[in-house]
Amino acid sequence: MARKIEMHWVCSSCGHRNLGRHKRCQRCGDPKDASEPWLMPSDTSAAPSVTDPELLRQANAGADWQCGYCGSHQRRLDGACAQCGAAQSEGRRVPVGGAAQAPGGAAPRALMAAAPRPAKTAWGRVALLVGLALAAVPCVTCMGVAVFTDPPPPALERPVTEVAEVTGGAWTRVVHIERYRVIEESGFVERRPADAFDIESLGQAHHHDEQVLDHYETEHYTEQVPYQDTETYTDQESCGEDCVDLPESCSEVCTPDDNGFASCNTVCSGGGQSCTTRYCSVTRTRTVTRYRSEPRTRQVPRYRTEPRYAERFRWHVWRWGHDRDVTEAGDATQAPAWPTDEELAPPAPLAEGERERTTREETYAVLLRVGARDEQLSATSLAVYDRLREEPRWHVYREGGSLQVAKPVHAFAAE
Questions:
Q1: Of 6, 131, 146, 267, which has the maximum CB count within 10 A?
Q2: Alpha helices in 86-211 (DSSP H)
């Protein structure tokens, strides 16, 4: 059966510690209100039980109510407020340590008509002013305005650059010339092209080697052959339980009654038994697969190498092939130019049926002074080459071991 103990509350006006039976501070006379919660004894097990009949009647009466006019706490046994005389029907139930609430969530008529009771401490007045100020501030998120608290993303950084001075340039233009002419080839019949002419036999020649079966040899080896065997082993199986008695542990749990008193009940846990399964060793048998080595023989083929011969030929055929290169090169003081038609002309007249074709290749480079080093920067085209030479100074950076152009120096200065 539950026993009753008495709680206490601390007056926010003078700091006096009052027993739960008192609804007025025993030092300054100020009535208790919702800002002063009920406090449980630090050691409930040492708190004395309430045995006085009058105090037991108060403890069992139910939760206190709060006056709707003056805000003071009243016992459930009281029909009217002892502070201002208001009827209990205008009051509110007082939750543990929280603010009072009227039935159905509506404020009592007396509180709606009367002025709010001033805070009992300086901190209470400050909290009231802050609450009123926050209530007057319009809802930012309700108006669709986003508030960002994270810092902005960091600015992107340019590569670390060096200043390069343009000291010159170089260019190379090459014309590769191929000639369509008669060439001589030789080989076996399967390699001879269909357009070959002047075909001449060169006689028999070694074509390839072949592996030919010579004889068989008897080879001895061992093979792992499976067979079934029976083995004995030990297994563990359940053969009962081992149990120990567990002690019972009891403690007292106290719950506030919202009226200055608390109900304390004894709660017990534990007791009974804790059991574990007992295992016993049992001898069993099972069939297992084992292996044994058995001798075997087999016939292994042996081969010999024999050369094979075929007729080899020589022939002529018309084919394109590289003949010569003609190159023009210069520096930044010279305009890039291709070799002239006279330079591209064959050194000797073409034979009947011969003709030539050309492919062209050009490379450009800008010479730079980077600090105390002379370096070269390749250009992909003549337009890029001219653009790089027009700017006397460039910002450059290194990427993957090679020099890269960033921006002209004047472009950085203009930013």
A1: 6
A2: 109-113, 122-136
